Amino acid sequence: MSIAWGLIMENTFNVVYLATVWILVILMYRNKAKIRTDERSLAGRFLLAFFLLAAGDSFHVGARVLSALLGPENSFINLGGIRYSILGLGMLATAYTMTGFYMVFAEARIHNARKKPDFAFWFMQTLLSLRLIIMAIPGNAWETSTPPWGMSLLRNLPLAVAGFLLAILFIREGNQRSDKTWKATGWAMVASYGFYTPVILFASAIPALGLLMIPKTVAYVVMGLLLYRRYWKG
């Protein structure tokens, strides 16, 4: 396959993904009247989470599409006298919104259980807050399109631990309540991190592993569709 066809396929997927996730968010908002009264607060949390996902990926995935159109040599902008990569800024945006996504999901779990925040909740929120701090360190080099491997690993480690823990809790609590949606959502989280982990660890040495971002992204769409079907469609 030629490089040109590879770019066309990648960016076609990116556009379809962004359109899908935004349509899902719009449907969640427009059909909120269909949600059961006792589940509206919980569904509202999921709506917020997927709005954050769509907004952050619009910058990140959108930056990839724009970079492909402009060419790598033209994919920079000047802010405050500093030359920033469009891709780097896109990664910065999605890094913060994805952290918010999991913070909201962790809170939704507590809300669904109708209990006070437990140790697991505070542990996950601490990890995610730590990630926010790490992302603010200058060594992240957000102005570049290729983040330093060490900082990339450092800032993604808290997210991975929190995400895997949340996935396990979704699966376990879904089993306890015989809730197929929560179990399936948990397994979709496991899949997303299963595909994402090799990218973080080895993509700098094996660029082809970047293709695993496609099934990783699809896993989030599956999560959204599962929750939409459950709470918006009954």
What is the fold's blueprint, element by element?
Layout: H1 3-30, H2 40-70, E1 76-79, E2 82-85, H3 86-113, H4 119-135, H5 149-177, H6 180-202, H7 213-231
Antiparallel strand pairs: 1-2
Structural summary, described in words:
The chain is mainly α and 234 residues long. It has a single domain (3-231), classed as Up-down Bundle (Rhopdopsin 7-helix transmembrane proteins). Helices cover 75% and strands 3% of the residues. The chain has seven helices and two strands. It has a two-stranded antiparallel sheet.
What structural keywords apply?
234 residues, mainly alpha, Rhopdopsin 7-helix transmembrane proteins, two-stranded antiparallel ribbon, 7 helices, 2 strands
Short description:
By secondary structure, the protein is mainly alpha-helical. The chain is built from seven helices and two strands; from the N terminus they run ααββααααα.
Main sheet characteristics: 2 strands, antiparallel
Structural class: mainly alpha
Strand order of the largest sheet: 1-2
CATH class call: Mainly Alpha
Instruction: Tell me the name of the CATH homologous superfamily.
Output: Rhodopsin 7-helix transmembrane proteins
Q: Which second-level CATH architecture applies?
A: Up-down Bundle
Give the number of helices: 7
SSE topology string? HHEEHHHHH
How many domains, as an integer?
1
